[in-house]
Amino acid sequence: MRLYQGIRSLILTFFRKILFLWVRTDVSGNSADALGLSSERPVCYVLQYSSLSSRLVLEQEVIRAQLPGATTSLPVKNGPSHSFFFLYQRIGGLFRKRQPPVPTAEFQALVRYGLENPEQDVQIVPVSLFWGRSPDKEKSLVKLLLSDTWSVAGRLQKFLIILVHGRNTYVQFNKPLSLKQVIDEYRHSEERANRKLARILRTHFRKVRQAVLGPDLSHRRTLVQGLLRTQSVKDAINTAAAKEDIAPEKVRARAYKYADEIAANMSIVTIRVLEVVLAWLWNRIYKGITVNNIRVVKESAQNNAVVYVPCHRSHIDYLLLSYVLYKNGLMPPHIAAGINLNMPIVGPILRRCGAFFMRRSFRDNPLYATVFNEYLHVMFSRGYSVEYFVEGGRSRTGRMLQPRPGMLSMTVRSFLRDHHKPIVFVPVYIGYEKVMEGRSYLGELRGKKKQKESVFGLAKTARKLSNSFGRVAVNFGEAIHLSEVLDDVHGSWRDEAYDSEYRPAWLNNAVSELSLRVASNINAAVAVNPVGMIATVLLGAERLAMDEGQLIRLADQYADLLKAYPYAETVTLPEGTGKDWVAYCESMGLISRQPQKLGDIIGLEGSNAILATYYRNNIQHLFALPSLVASLFENKSSLARDKIVYLASVAYPYLQSELFLKYPPGEAEAVINQWIDVLVDQGLLVTLDNERIAHPEEGTEAMLRLKVLSRFIIQTVERYHIVLGILRKYGPAKITAMELEEQSTLLAERMSILFGLNAPEFFDKSLFRNFIANMQKNGVITTDDNGLLCYGEGLDEVADDARLVLSVEKRQAIQQVTMLGV
């Protein structure tokens, strides 16, 4: 028997060596740490269907990764000399009718072992294997036959699949199951124990296949024609025909043109080719891509229609996220792209990579709006993953922009119509150390008109490919279940009937709540990098320059501040120390060095000084509350603790709205108190008697740290004070919201010139608009019948308190314009 097993092992090893002369694998989860395996319990690996080739690939990857169980046998009586088994074996073959698969003898023996040895446990690791990853959508019968899809391949088909797709094989190891826990309740029924374990494994394999391959796809032409047969599109066609007094056939042709313009044409072949191209591209322009918290996506994709909602910093975002998902064994999403990207050459490629195109505005085109809504509804109801940017456009300042409600509203309405398939939003933070469009953003912030995308513009961008843009981080945030948001906003939403046109009264509240959670969760997954840390510290210096040793110490100390009170578990911090970060930023050409005998001086010069605000703004929300507390000591040596909490709490709702801070207003006081304690522990504040808090002594290192920290946020608070100063200048019922916004922008621009502020967002009109809207929302100001702003004495008190954060020079600058003592 031992001789037979030895010969059999040699033969299988020979076959494995032959197979891997051709096969190339991409493997996920193949480490003991990732799987959480215990060394005290036996491990065995299970594949869904019996297949010699799959068994050989699995054995090779277990040995290659040095996983436990590679050379051990199944813990069953007279078991095989390996730790692999199959859930099902096929009955039938080339010349016999194929029968439904049945559980293998090894599977049944393992269950029997668990029942007979209740004190023993076995770790069962499910392993999914895909020979190529193609959805069930191909024009060619040959391609359909040779794609690893939802159907079970026969021996001849499997041989051809390996021949065609063997060099694109994907293997995914998944978290182990406990045999003891699964079968414990069926100790007296082997048959029921078999059925339960088989059902759990079968469900697991189906979910993984759903996540990796995506749902079965229909042909694009069939999908487009199907949209025109939906009742809502038919009604829209008839309405447009009657309104324009033209034949319905002409309107129907227009609707078909809209649907054809919108619909994606995802091609796995294009994705595979692009994977190779993008791998080359990333290696050429970036120093690496770091992916964090991918587990959230893999879990969400197995049971839900996933909506990826990344922040939008660069055109690279589209490609980068799809690449990361595909490399981690997930089907790339269908991506909502602006119609401006539907350019010659580029547009068809993006469409075949999953992009569906949408016009910037279709409020005045109800037929287009209906076709687009129906297309999106098909995506969600069939379980496709979708990606769109809630900000609408790219952020030119590095901050999260105010979410636009359009796509979110369409998603909610689609879910209300048909919610049998749960929808989960997965926030994604994409962090660049050096954004490719940085220089063009500078021009736009200075008033230069945004250039329209074109093939020639892309060709010019291609010249930058020899540059290094540092590392990129892709962080996945905490998932948001749409049903839970709706439960919080309108608990009885499941009891109402919805159609394609129905917009419940509470829809706007639901969309607003959803947009706030999405933006907050994106910011809560921020990747802090060396560039952001050094830019933040240098921008806190009065002259944008600092002694190198001092810069290194401050960078380390502010990093320690983030560790002392972590903002969220999904936030990632840079490796290394301040010294490493300074050297890295210098190698990237983002900071300058001036040699000096008493110590080199590091600074920001020219366009780098303005560009640094972009990278500072990426992480500004992390420092918002401690910086706000620090700013209150700009003109006061000490304050009562409850006064600090009160003032910071008054400002918090506006900071939360602008920076998308994750804490609800009701939690603000507790968080502020916690930050006061942290600042005291770090030596930035001092506790006095009678519950008073003071700043450190002037001229000390601690006082310098506090002053620099306060400058991280002080420009935002100054902007608020500009609005209050102008509003009080005119008095109640004397100025409209639009006029207040315009005059505040002009004054901020004037102060930016006078004081050399290098933050273009300081006079960003949209930020003033948002602050004024939030004051109206919070009841601080109201609007009369003539559209004029009114306020009470409470606003004067807030304005007086705001003086604490303003320097004498800036108070005088505001006073000269408003002619009001502040």
UniProtKB/TrEMBL annotation:
Its EC number is 2.3.1.15. Residues 306-433 form the Phospholipid/glycerol acyltransferase domain. It catalyses: sn-glycerol 3-phosphate + an acyl-CoA = a 1-acyl-sn-glycero-3-phosphate + CoA. It holds the Pfam family GPAT_C. It is found in: Cell membrane. Keywords: Acyltransferase, Cell membrane, Lipid biosynthesis, Lipid metabolism, Membrane, Phospholipid biosynthesis, Phospholipid metabolism, Transferase. It is a peripheral membrane protein. SUPFAM superfamilies: Glycerol-3-phosphate (1)-acyltransferase. InterPro entries: GPAT/DHAPAT (IPR022284), GPAT/DHAPAT_C (IPR045520), GPAT/DHAPAT_LPLAT (IPR041728), GPAT_PlsB (IPR028354), Plipid/glycerol_acylTrfase (IPR002123). Pathway: Lipid metabolism; Phospholipid metabolism; CDP-diacylglycerol biosynthesis; CDP-diacylglycerol from sn-glycerol 3-phosphate: step 1/3. One of its GO terms (biological process) is CDP-diacylglycerol biosynthetic process. SMART domains: PlsC (SM00563). GO terms for molecular function: glycerol-3-phosphate O-acyltransferase activity. A motif (HXXXXD motif) lies at residues 311-316. It comes from the Bacteria. Belongs to the GPAT/DAPAT family. This is Glycerol-3-phosphate acyltransferase. It comes from Marinobacter antarcticus.
